[in-house]
Design goal:
This protein has helices at 6-25, 30-55, 58-86, 99-121, 129-146, 150-171, 176-203, 210-216. Helix content is 80%, strand content 0%. The protein is mostly helical. The protein has 8 helices and no strands. Helix 2 (30-55) packs antiparallel against helix 3, helix 4 packs antiparallel against helix 5 and helix 6 packs antiparallel against helix 7 (176-203). The chain has one domain.
């Protein structure tokens, strides 16, 4: 089935996904970062659905549904519950003054990802959307290494998996579903471990001094 303006819609979704990743780099609060990965996962699922209709590949449709259930609903709800339960909605200590630098690095990574695609990958993979997946992988890695809050680092991990599934759906449409099933248990494992580590700060009163960070402005 041919969808009118499918290429333009896919490009728009790709740009919006990148903007959601850049938005996450600009947040020092946990709650909006989790909500951003929720939105990003829904956008990715919409992209998979369009590709499924365009190519007639039912596995991409299954992947879209699984992405919504796992990355769009289940995992974010667990993480948001953790925020409400243990009050991790305050700004992460130490990042407030570094947000502009993270944003600039994120923009630089977007440019770098596109440049790497044009110079190295384009002769072998002509689909320009792969550059979005490559850049998303870089931004997820930046989120992991630049933050100390466990829940925020988990969103970076999910973003990296989104990037891998994104690239897989474009390059080899039959592989992403296998990858998704393979990492489902990994995601739950990471979520459980992250919640334990994050809650431990409250149970043993070892939270970072978020109140001081709030006063610093």
């Amino acid at each position: 089935m041919i969808i009118p303006f499918a290429t333009e819609i896919e490009a728009l979704l790709g740009i919006t996904i990148l903007l959601s990743a850049l938005y996450m780099q600009g947040q020092s609060f946990v709650d909006p970062t989790i909500r951003a990965i929720l939105v990003q996962s829904f956008l990715l699922a919409a992209l998979f659905a369009i590709l499924a209709i365009q190519t007639g590949n039912i596995e991409l449709f299954y992947l879209a549904v699984l992405t919504v259930i796992m990355r769009g609903i289940t995992v974010p709800r667990i993480m948001l519950y953790q925020v409400r339960k243990f009050k991790h909605s305050l700004r992460e200590t130490g990042t407030g003054q570094k947000i502009p630098a993270f944003m600039l690095i994120g923009i630089a990574l977007i440019i770098l990802g596109y440049a790497l695609f044009k110079t190295i990958l384009e002769p072998y993979i002509p689909n320009s959307q792969v550059s979005v997946a490559l850049t998303l992988l870089f931004l997820g890695f930046l989120l992991i290494i630049s933050r100390r809050n466990t829940l925020v680092q988990m969103t970076g991990y999910i973003e990296e998996e989104n990037a891998i599934l994104y690239a897989g759906a474009l390059i080899a449409p039959t592989i992403p579903l296998l990858i998704e099933f393979a990492v489902v248990l990994d995601i739950f494992g990471v979520v459980i471990i992250g919640i334990i580590l994050s809650a431990q700060r409250d149970v043993f009163h070892t939270l970072e001094p978020a109140d001081l960070e709030q006063l610093r402005g």
